[in-house]
């Protein structure tokens, strides 16, 4: 029996979408809505809850952990479509909230149960990931950038773009993160010297053009113990003012190194005692303090762990709590937080070590009072433990956070000196375990190939982007979508083999393939990226180790034109003396559309056009007049349109044109649909020059990104004079 039919689920949950279709503000969560609330309800976390937000500065990944609490209420079992949990992120860099975008994951009814340790398998911990580009906000390392991030969890409906609106089912969470500093430029050197000398230093005019030239960075150096003592102003007793650090934290790396050294001698111990004494520190007391230190979370604490259901990597979120104690500021190497992951996939109460992730942390004097949240990310290969949907797979995960020294990779029960341990349960995405070698493409343009119609090359009505669960049709209408611009080809990495991606117009002869050989960078799981370069003679790439990369890209195809194309992959086990191809996929069809709606003759579909009927285009009208006109917005794969009046500022407010034409339906052919603009209400428009702007989008998936389409706009002008 389906869990959702075995219990009584609230009407507000079971008929949630139907209720909202009748009244979008039924629950009173939409600010400024013209609809009156019927039953106020917000931030209900009975079924799901957003528990952590964190950021990986090295990878620019914003991540959130969501806990699913109950066995029912999610729209059906795992063999059904289920429902979707969405998280929208906002960031405040000092000028108010900025919408960063939304991500989601599928969720289903999964029965309760006990694991081998007799613990409930709920809650289940899921992670969503949003890559961001914070380049415009990066600062020189002397200035920490620590925005507040807001996450809004909303079940089965996208969260509002208004950061002040609350979800009905879900909750809102605010946390601070830290953005990685930009690279040092020549001007920074002059600034740093000026700070040391107490005066501003400017580069001479002859060198001004070099101010923002980046300097080569071999990596910042670690801070020596004597410098840290001076910086922290630590007293020998360890009792100091805010910002000071206990000696056994300050000299932790030296103490651990000595404890692990096989060459310990009286001479080496006496030397350390003398060195520390010269710095005003007590070596013996610090060693004794370390012996008593176990699972100390006064500086950092692991707060959440989970599995990114779509990208299939494990994420540990930890909190850095204090302004100092991390071995140097952002201009230094700082120190390292290690997160080791263990798994018990088969519920045997036997842990298997999976690996560890590392995150650099630093002293930041003006750290927010609620601390800074970081994430550590580890890719995992789940093919061996994946199961069909009829047998849902839930696994146990353990993570261990340890500062400055890696956690044990042999003892899952070992407690670190500084840090802590967490356990959770995760659900593995269902599927059929594939053979060791496959010639298969997972996704084209961000859409799983199973969600691209094999005949038309367009997306299916239920198609979503595999990585964020957003609909292929950005307007949520399930219309078939073509592809354009950069088409990212993704698939499973198979180390030890080679692969080649080929494309051809379907109208070309069957053998007329072109190899896709554009070089690109694969994002490493630790730091940085590695180049992926095709063999110039054959067009084959070398498969990488999937556990080393937060990336599944196989090729980047920069598409052109509007035709139907075929894409295939070939796999080889040797390239010399010639490629030995051992597997070839069938052709995957993909319909391209790289043409935006046209604004110039010939005015045929696709096209956009707008005119003023009452008085003519670019004429003068009297304030208070109502302008009328017609517009055309059409495209082979029409997405949507909008009408606006510009300028629309505090000094010159304007009213938006109105039309009876639905914004997601193409207009009739010329003259199209009617529009009107009342210059008197709701605002009284001032005498000025204005334009009525028509914007139009098709629904082509451009650049393999959700919400990115071919776009164009056109305007018609008019002047408004005083009476």
Would you write up a description of this structure?
The chain is mostly beta strands. The chain has four domains: 3-181 and 298-428, no CATH class; 225-291, no CATH class; 443-457 and 477-591, no CATH class; 607-721, Immunoglobulins (Immunoglobulin-like, Sandwich). It is 10% helix and 32% strand. The protein is built from nine helices and 35 strands. The strands form nine sheets. A six-stranded mixed beta sheet has the order 1-2-5-8-9-12, with no helix packed on it. The N and C termini lie far apart (73 Å).
Which helices and strands appear, and what pairs or packs with what?
Elements: H1 3-6, H2 11-14, H3 16-22, E1 48-56, E2 61-68, E3 83-92, E4 97-107, E5 124-131, E6 148-155, E7 172-176, H4 186-197, H5 225-232, H6 247-250, H7 252-260, H8 266-278, H9 283-291, E8 300-308, E9 313-320, E10 335-344, E11 352-361, E12 372-379, E13 393-403, E14 421-428, E15 443-444, E16 447-448, E17 483-484, E18 486-490, E19 498-505, E20 514-515, E21 520-523, E22 529-532, E23 541-542, E24 553-558, E25 564-572, E26 581-584, E27 588-591, E28 607-612, E29 620-622, E30 626-634, E31 638-646, E32 673-678, E33 688-698, E34 701-702, E35 711-721
Parallel strand pairs: 5-8, 17-34, 29-35
Antiparallel strand pairs: 1-2, 2-5, 3-4, 3-6, 6-7, 8-9, 9-12, 10-11, 10-13, 13-14, 15-16, 15-18, 18-24, 19-20, 19-23, 19-25, 21-22, 25-26, 25-27, 28-30, 30-32, 31-33, 33-35
């Amino acid at each position: 029996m389906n869990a959702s039919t075995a219990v009584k689920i609230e009407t507000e949950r079971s008929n949630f979408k139907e209720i909202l279709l009748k009244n979008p503000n039924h629950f009173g969560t939409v600010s400024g809505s013209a609809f009156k609330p019927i039953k106020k309800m917000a931030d209900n976390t009975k079924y799901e809850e957003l528990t952590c937000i964190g950021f990986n500065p090295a990878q620019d990944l914003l991540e959130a952990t969501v806990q699913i609490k109950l066995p029912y209420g999610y729209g059906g079992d795992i063999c059904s479509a289920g429902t979707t949990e969405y998280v929208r992120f906002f960031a405040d860099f000092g000028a108010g909230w900025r919408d960063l975008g939304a991500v989601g994951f599928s969720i289903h009814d999964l029965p309760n149960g006990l694991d081998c340790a007799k613990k409930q398998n709920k809650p289940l911990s899921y992670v969503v990931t949003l890559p961001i580009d914070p380049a415009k906000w990066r600062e020189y390392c002397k200035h920490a950038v620590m925005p507040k991030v807001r996450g809004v969890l909303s079940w089965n409906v996208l969260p509002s773009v208004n950061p002040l609106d609350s979800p009905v089912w879900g909750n809102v969470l605010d946390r601070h993160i830290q953005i990685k500093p930009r690279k040092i430029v020549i001007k920074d050197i002059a600034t740093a010297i000026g700070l040391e000398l107490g005066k501003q230093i400017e580069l001479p005019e002859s060198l001004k053009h070099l101010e923002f030239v980046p300097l080569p960075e071999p990596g910042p150096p670690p801070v020596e113990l004597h410098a840290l003592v001076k910086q922290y102003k630590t007293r020998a007793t360890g009792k100091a003012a805010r910002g000071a650090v206990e000696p056994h934290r300050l000299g932790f790396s030296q103490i651990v190194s000595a404890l692990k050294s096989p060459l310990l001698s009286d001479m080496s111990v006496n030397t350390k005692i003398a060195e520390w004494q010269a710095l005003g520190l007590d070596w013996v007391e610090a060693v004794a303090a370390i012996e008593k230190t176990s699972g100390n979370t006064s500086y950092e604490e692991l707060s959440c762990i989970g599995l990114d259901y779509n990208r299939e990597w494990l994420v540990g979120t930890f909190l850095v709590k204090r302004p100092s104690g991390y071995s140097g500021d952002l201009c230094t190497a700082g120190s390292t937080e290690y997160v080791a992951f263990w798994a018990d996939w088969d519920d045997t109460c036997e842990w298997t070590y999976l690996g560890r992730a590392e995150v650099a942390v630093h002293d930041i004097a003006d750290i927010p009072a609620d601390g800074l949240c970081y994430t550590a990310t580890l890719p995992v290969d789940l093919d061996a433990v994946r199961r069909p949907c009829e047998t849902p797979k839930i696994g146990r995960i353990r993570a261990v956070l340890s500062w400055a020294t890696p956690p044990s990779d042999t003892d899952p029960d070992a407690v670190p000196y500084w840090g802590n341990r967490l356990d959770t349960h995760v659900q593995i995405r269902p599927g059929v375990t594939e053979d060791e070698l496959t010639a298969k493409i997972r996704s084209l343009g961000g859409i799983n190939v199973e969600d691209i119609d094999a005949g038309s090359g367009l997306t299916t009505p239920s198609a979503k982007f595999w990585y964020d669960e957003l609909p292929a049709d950005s307007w949520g209408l399930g219309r078939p979508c073509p592809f354009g611009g950069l088409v990212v080809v993704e698939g499973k990495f198979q180390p030890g083999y080679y692969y080649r991606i080929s494309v051809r117009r379907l109208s070309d002869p069957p053998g007329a393939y072109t190899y896709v050989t554009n070089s690109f960078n694969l994002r490493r799981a630790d730091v940085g990226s590695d180049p992926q370069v095709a063999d110039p003679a054959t067009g084959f790439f070398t498969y990488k180790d999937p556990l080393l990369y937060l990336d599944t890209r196989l090729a980047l195809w920069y598409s052109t034109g509007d035709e139907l194309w075929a894409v295939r992959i070939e796999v080889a086990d040797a390239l010399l003396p010639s490629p030995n191809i051992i597997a070839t996929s069938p052709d995957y069809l993909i319909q391209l559309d790289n043409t935006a709606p046209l604004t110039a003759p010939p005015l045929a579909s696709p096209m956009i056009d707008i005119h003023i009927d009452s008085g003519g285009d670019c004429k003068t009208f009297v304030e208070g007049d109502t302008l009328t006109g017609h517009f055309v917005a059409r495209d082979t794969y029409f997405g949507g349109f909008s009408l606006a009046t510009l300028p629309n500022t505090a000094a010159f407010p304007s009213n938006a044109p109105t039309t009876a034409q639905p914004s997601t339906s193409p207009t009739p052919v010329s003259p199209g649909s009617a529009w009107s603009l009342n210059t008197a209400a709701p605002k009284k428009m001032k005498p000025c020059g204005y334009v009525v702007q028509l914007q139009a989008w098709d629904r082509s998936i451009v650049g393999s990104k959700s919400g990115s389409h071919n776009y164009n706009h056109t305007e018609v002008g008019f002047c408004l004079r005083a009476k």
